[in-house]
């Protein structure tokens, strides 16, 4: 928002559409992305408030959002992912599983 405000002040309100291209779909997807990130953050606060250690809750939420974004991009947005991309997502899921099932314990024991 600060960058956009600086551009408006520098270029003038009438010329901003020539400097920064935007349309209603871009704005819609930007708002949807912001709402999704905000929801994930609030969910992480709720989960951490239930007593789940942050070392387990944060990787699950972040990794889950990457996995969800990959599936969403390929199914709804018709994006293509290579074998390496899907292999990375699979490694991420395995890592999340290892972190989620870690019994934890006190440091220094």
Topology (SSEs and partners):
Blueprint: H1 2-11, H2 16-19, H3 24-49, H4 54-75, H5 83-100
Helix pairs in contact: 3-4, 4-5
* Tally of DSSP helical segments: 5
| Terminal Cα span | 48 Å
Q: Uncertain spans, ≥5 residues at pLDDT below 50?
A: none
Q: Write down how many β-strands occur, each being a DSSP E stretch of 2 or more residues.
A: 0
Share of helical residues: over 70%
SSE arrangement, N to C: HHHHH
Whole-number average pLDDT?
79
The computed structural class is mainly alpha
Gross geometry:
extended
Count of individual domains: 2
Percent of residues in beta strands: under 5%
Question: Largest beta sheet, briefly?
Answer: none
Radius of gyration: 20 Å
Structural key phrases:
73% helix; 109 residues; 0% strand
Structure notes:
It is a single chain. This protein has 109 residues and is mainly α. It has 2 domains: 1-51; 52-103. Helix content is 73%, strand content 0%. It contains 5 helices and no strands. It has helices at residues 2-11, 16-19, 24-49, 54-75, 83-100. Helix 3 packs antiparallel against helix 4 and helix 4 packs antiparallel against helix 5 (83-100).
């Amino acid at each position: 928002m600060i960058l956009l405000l600086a551009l408006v002040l520098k270029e003038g309100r009438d010329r901003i559409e020539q400097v920064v291209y935007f349309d209603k779909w871009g704005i819609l997807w930007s708002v949807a992305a912001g709402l999704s990130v905000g929801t994930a953050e609030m969910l992480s606060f709720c989960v951490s408030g239930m007593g789940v250690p942050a070392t387990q809750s944060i990787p699950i939420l972040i990794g889950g959002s990457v996995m969800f974004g990959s599936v969403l991009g390929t199914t709804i947005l018709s994006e293509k992912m290579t074998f390496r991309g899907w292999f990375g997502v699979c490694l991420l899921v395995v890592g999340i599983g290892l972190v989620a099932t870690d019994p934890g314990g006190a440091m220094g024991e």
